[in-house]
Specification:
Blueprint (H helix, E strand, L loop, with lengths): L5 E5 L6 H9 L4 E4 H7 L6 H10 L12 H9 L2 H25 L5 E4 L14 E6 L2 H12 L3 H10 L3 H7 L2 E4 L4 H20 L1
Parallel strand pairs: 1-3, 1-4, 2-3, 4-5
Helix pairs in contact: 1-9, 6-7
Length: 201
């Protein structure tokens, strides 16, 4: 296993993490997306899905055998013990899969994109932390437009995440996404050169 340089990328809901990762992937940088990994570990045929169906019963599955996510969300949202059980099951599986993908990645560095990087203390897996940042009012309007969710829903998600101040304190670099995509792209270009040099050091 070579010693891969891992760049953790995070930001609050609606901050533009996906836009930033898309720009890094244009530089042929491997992106390891925690949300995708979380879906993979409960895919049909996975150890995670088998454990969930044994625990909650087969009605947690849809007719095609895949996970009924809304039903699972309902079950754990209203029961903190079930939420703890689910986290104990999934967090090690997600972490193991992320480490495997980091080890397989090519290029000078890889991006580990995790919405709750700071909250779940996953900064320990990273050599460098990048935060995508914009004002909270902008986060709110962007997330409402994108998800079609109510203001209340987005505000409660924001309240459950680390504050902007806490996230920025954890950052080695900050991408300001309060302007155009071109403005963000220029910053990514500069940061890509910096990270490539750091990973060589």
């Amino acid at each position: 296993m070579r010693n891969q340089f891992v760049v953790g990328l995070t930001g609050g809901i609606g901050s533009g993490k996906s836009a930033a990762t898309a720009l890094f992937s244009k530089h042929n940088i491997d992106i390891i997306d925690a949300d995708e990994v979380a879906r993979d570990v409960v895919a049909i045929g996975s150890e995670g899905l088998q454990a969930i169906s044994e625990h909650f019963g087969d009605d947690i599955l849809l007719s095609n055998g895949s996970l009924n996510r809304p039903l699972l969300r309902e079950k754990v949202f209203s029961n903190s013990d079930e939420k703890v059980w689910l986290n104990i099951l999934l967090h090690p599986l997600i972490r193991e899969r992320m480490i495997a993908l980091i080890n397989e990645s090519q290029g000078p560095y890889c991006i580990l994109s995790v919405p709750l990087l700071v909250e779940n203390n996953l900064t320990t897996m990273c050599n460098h932390v990048v935060v995508v940042d914009c004002p909270e009012a902008m986060q709110l309007s962007r997330a409402m437009q994108r998800d079609g969710s109510s203001e209340q829903t987005i505000k409660s998600i924001m309240a459950s995440q680390a504050t902007r101040e806490v996230r920025l304190k954890a950052a080695d670099d900050v991408l300001d996404n309060s302007d155009s995509l071109q403005h963000l792209a220029k910053q990514v270009d500069v940061l890509h050169s910096k990270l490539s040099a750091l990973s060589d050091a």
